[in-house]
Amino acid sequence: xxxxRFAFFARQRRGRCDCCDRHQVLERKILLLEDDDLIGDxxxxxxxxxxxxxxxxxxxxxxxxxxxxxxxxSRSGDSPGE
Length: 82
Prior knowledge:
Helix content is about 15%, strand content about 50%. It is built from 1 helix and 5 strands; from the N terminus they run E-E-E-H-E-E.
């Protein structure tokens, strides 16, 4: 199971945000985990951290149809506009 955890730096520092690539004050670090194994991390500015936290903590959506981007719709005759 994948998990996303947010951590705050004890002291803010300046650097490039891993999300927007702007030189900003970096405030948070996101840890990406699979079960208990760390598989990645992102160091983020305040704006990106707030946006990603809202996405992660928001309500889950249910997929109603799968779309295969390389080959078009998953069923022949389907299109995103129908």
